[in-house]
Design brief:
The protein has a two-stranded antiparallel sheet with strand order 1-2. A hairpin with a 2-residue loop joins strand 1 (about 25-30) and strand 2 (about 30-35). About 40% of the residues lie in helices and about 20% in strands. The radius of gyration is 12 Å and the shape is globular. It has a domain at about 25-55. The protein is of the alpha+beta class and about 60 residues long.
């Protein structure tokens, strides 16, 4: 249920992130390089770095 509360969760558990997130922020060297919906991030990431990360862990 949506309660109007914002939470920031840092995780390497992609299944969990995909299930609970409204937005995925992907960071590289301390900078946000991608900001998208879970559907977009996991099916068609915008950056080469995110693509490489997902290919390694999925």
């Amino acid at each position: 249920a949506h309660t109007g509360i914002t939470m920031v969760i840092v995780t390497h558990l992609m299944g969990f992130a995909q299930e609970v997130a409204d937005r995925i922020l992907f960071m590289d060297h301390g900078k946000i390089i991608e900001d998208s919906s879970p559907k977009t991030f996991f099916k068609k990431p915008e950056t080469k770095r995110a693509k490489a990360f997902l290919e390694k862990i999925l």
